[in-house]
Amino acid sequence: MIKCRVNGKLLADWKQFHDFFEKTFAFPGYYGRNMDAWNDCMSDYCYENGLVSLHIDNASELKALNSEAFNALVECSAFINWRSTEEGGDPLIVLSYYV
């Protein structure tokens, strides 16, 4: 399992959000910096590298500063897990946070 911890304050705007994931998970140069592209790149990363545990510190700050990004992260992580399990696989992302 790959463990990643991030301070939610560092994801406070969309640029910071996409910068973090692009760099941390080595997304390809064609990464579109939107949540559809995030789903695809994060799924590919997990399929290649295994289960990812993503822990968000200060999640309440992220939710207050950029609730759209917070909600998208929760929904897209759930979608990636749903898609994988729907295909007979295991969940790919463990998302933990406290708000």
UniProtKB/TrEMBL annotation:
Pfam hit, one: Barstar
Gene3D superfamilies found in the cross-reference section: Barstar-like (3.30.370.10)
Domain of life according to the entry: Bacteria
Barstar (barnase inhibitor) domain boundaries: 4-87
UniProt record similarity statement: Belongs to the barstar family.
Protein name per Swiss-Prot or TrEMBL: Barstar family protein
Organism field: Zooshikella harenae
High-level lineage: Bacteria, Pseudomonadati, Pseudomonadota, Gammaproteobacteria, Oceanospirillales
